[in-house]
Design brief:
Number of helices: 5
Helix content: over 70%
Shape: globular
Number of domains: 1
Distance between the termini: 10 Å
Order of helices and strands: HHHHH
Length: 139
């Protein structure tokens, strides 16, 4: 699982760079969803914007590293390459969407605007590809 976590670290770094560039181009503000998830799961209560931003950053990185272990599990089942990246993306993205809905953070993805949906799919897709490529190299 260490290789998966390390691959996840590489993937979340790639995703973070892409998000930073995209936000500078589009003017989109950073998502506070990771912080909202952490706050709800850990029952932290209401946070001010600055505290929520700090929690979001930590949760973003922790989630990326942790989801790398899911990619390791996929690899252990014998699935590699693009198929593994697609499976990883599907599991992660669907799981995230269900969690957001269950916690009352957002509606189902088909109710999201294109401005909400596109960056989420693109960045998590990049994460899955980068994590999968890193895992395949490490394994």
């Amino acid at each position: 699982m260490f290789k998966g976590a390390f691959a996840g670290l590489i993937g979340v770094a790639a995703m973070t760079v892409a998000q930073t560039v995209e936000m500078r181009i589009t003017g989109r503000r950073p998502s506070m969803v990771p912080g909202q998830v952490a706050s709800k799961l850990l029952r932290l209560g209401p946070e001010d914007d600055e505290a929520l931003a700090r929690i979001s950053t930590r949760m973003h990185w922790a989630h990326g590293v942790t989801m790398g272990t899911v990619r390791a599990a996929i690899g252990r089942s014998g699935i590699q390459g693009p198929v593994a990246a697609l499976a990883h993306f599907g599991l992660m993205w669907a799981g995230d969407a269900m969690l957001y809905k269950a916690l009352g953070i957002s509606p189902w993805p088909w109710e999201w605007s294109l401005e909400e949906l596109a960056p989420d799919v693109v960045h998590k897709g990049l994460y899955a590809v980068a994590t999968s490529a890193a895992y395949d190299r490490l394994a």
